[in-house]
Amino acid sequence: MALRALRNATITFGLVSIPVRFYTATKSEDIHFNLLHESCGTRVNRKWWCPHHEKIVDSDELIRGYAISKKKFVTFTDEEIDTLETDDNRALDIVEFLTLDQIDPVFFEKAYFLGAAPGGGKTYKLLASAMKKESKVALAQWVSAGREHLVVIRPYEDGLILHTMFYADEVRDFDAIDTEGGGEAREKEIKLAEMLIAELTEKKFNPVQFKDEYRERLMDRIRAKAKGKPITSEEKEEEKKGAEVIDIMEALRRSLGNGKAKPKRAAARKAKPRARATASKKKKAS
Fold this sequence. Notes:
By secondary structure, the chain is of the alpha+beta class. It has helices at residues 78-82, 121-134, 187-199, 213-226, 248-257, 264-285; strands spanning 8-13, 16-24, 36-37, 42-43, 48-50, 55-57, 64-67, 73-76, 92-98, 108-116, 137-144, 147-156, 159-165. Among the domains are: 1-27 and 46-171, Ku70, Chain: A, Domain 2, CATH 2.40.290; 186-196 and 247-281, no CATH class.
């Protein structure tokens, strides 16, 4: 099914203008529950309560307000907010090109596919091809939805993708967390850790191999309850607790020595084909 364009914009760099369209690049598959009134099973509605008039107000009676003191607000209507977004600052104005490894992933927020709008196909392909050949991404600024966004535009597949970003003052200071210290790692520990990293290293990221197993379990429970089946808690077998490994060197050696380095999911996926192969051999033998 074709994606529906969300909005139009224009990429500008130098004297070049490229009309583009935004498309949602990702989607959440999280399972969402509605709130129901337990006694009757009816879905409840969200209401806006005004404590001054002691009544529920409709959404069309609401305006935006910015608190400048405890009980004093500067108010804005939607029309007044819209006047801040002009045709000029709606453009995706590229300010510089750089390599992707210069940007830490902590700054990335959301992703959107950028498609060529009518009349922009040739320049769109030109920019995408040139950036891909030079291994460069573009840093741009863009005003939308009541705020100015810092964005990265980069080559993706046969076109372009845009990532909205957090500003530096929106990323909290890492020094504010407790890392407990613990002293410097010894050279032997570092070398063993490097060996473990090398053992778990893959040449290419394959997102298809990962799945949300919790969501699948939850959907199984939802389907079971829909059919009237009772949900019972599963008794968990007590895990065998081995001796606590305090020595980091010993923990690293065990990880490398007894095959525990590979994740459980990867091991399970590799085990299934072998099981099928064994079963087919038994059938042939019989």
